[in-house]
Amino acid sequence: MADRVLVIGSGGREHALAWKLAQSPHVKQVFVAPGNAGTADNGKISNSAVLVSNHTIVTQFCKDHNIGLVVVGQETLLAAGIVDDLQAAGVRCFGPSAKAAQLASNTSFAKAFLDRHGIPTARWKAFTNPQEACSTDFPARVVRARGPAARKEVTIAASKEEACKAVQDIMQDRMFGEIVVIEELLQGEELSCLCFTDGVTVASMPPAQAHKRLLDGDQGPNTGGMGAYCPVPQVQQSSLA
Description:
This protein has helices at residues 12-22, 55-64, 75-79, 82-88, 98-105, 107-116, 130-133, 160-171; strands at residues 4-9, 29-34, 45-47, 69-72, 93-94, 124-127, 141-146, 152-157, 180-184, 195-197, 202-204, 209-210, 213-215, 219-222, 228-229.
């Protein structure tokens, strides 16, 4: 483990990563860029104002401050290839390449990947025309879009009319991109099963369940995540071994 670690991002995910990294006796200092109020001057953890959108500046920061490892939590930067650029400059970095990050940043790419490799997934179609998107016949729909700023918009629609309105809202001004993905809505428990891998071996973490809806009782609009909890009582841990 490196003496000095740089965590890139500003959300709760990066806060948790920095908190756990700081517990290691092998880590002397954790920088978080840009960080948040919770990661500012917190023991081993401190924020940095390094401009993370400029990969050249980040690379130089790592060399100037003897950063032994960079951990990237922010999805937009992963999709922009920050891991590729840092590794090419000789900076050790934990995170997927831009190509691999498409599985999270590009819904149509991810769905096509699942189909191509025979991995079960909900029925789906991608559209560039809002009229065609409104014609899908799934009984319940998930409308997804991702725009140039990598903001993901997700609407869970219980009817064709509601789905069509979401499509129009997303595509009318092209605020969130040129492509909309319509999926069949699957009912049931949703879990996140994440793993660490070096490309050869895989180490799984316990499953977690995120709070996706804005309001209590799974009501209100879908969000990027209102928090998560683990372990998940609905799942027997032994069944995932």
